[in-house]
Amino acid sequence: RLAGRTALVTGSxxxxxxxxxRVLASSGAxxxxxxxxxxxxxxxxxxxxxxxxxxxxxxxxxxxxxxEIREFARVATxxxxxxxxxxxxNAGIYPVGPTAALxxxxxxxxxxxxxxxxxxxxxxxxxxxxxxxxxxxxxxxSWMSRVGIPFGAAYTASKAAIExxxxxxxxxxxxxxxxxxxxxPGATATPGNAADAEQVEAMTAxxxxxxxxxxxxxxxxxxxxxxxxxxFAHGTVLDVDGGIANT
Length: 247
Ligand code: NAD
What we know:
The protein is of the alpha/beta class.
């Protein structure tokens, strides 16, 4: 159902982003896979290709220089034939711990990766979608954006920020035919939080579902929001968290 569409999924060399890239590709989209290193991106491209999909690897460091991020957006668009239909802002880091224990460099990195990079990518890519009159942007938020948890203030603030940026962008680009929405995952077992397996288990136990969210479950929600079926969804937050943020 996404045949002929092109997609850029940031942070798609691992976990949730990888699942999103694979699901979009299996639905017919041509996908740019991206992460910090080329070999990891190429490995995901190889999996997609072996499954009959089409993908290209374009690495980037999204915590860095704004000009580099803009250049990354242009290179990715060129790899897709010059036109981008779908942007998924998924790359994110989540340093957690007591507020006083967060190093200044980690504070800067989480704000740069989770807020600044999506902003720069939308600034670079959304105007062309708006000019064309169609496009879809999904930002990956978190169930932690709306609850008080005694660790990870910077991370949870970054996810609250992306939800609000979603609403603002929906208002800014929606009238031009661009759908902007958030998918907010619950505790999902991924390489990124493998070290916190106990915490994931404890959070899962607190959900209605009682079993962990899988990366592919997040990907299915993204696929819906970038499809024509969701053309009236503007600025929504779709919680895919087993029922924790709303219960
Ligand atoms: P992960 O650590 O498994 O993967 C993160 C991806 O982002 C990787 O591909 C990595 O290369 C990329 N990335 C990180 N820093 C980058 C940088 N500076 N430049 C370019 N790419 C970079 O993470 P995950 O658990 O799959 O999480 C993906 C997204 O989902 C994040 O935004 C995270 O905040 C969000 N999320 C995750 C959970 C969870 O429980 N796993 C819950 C809620 C929200």
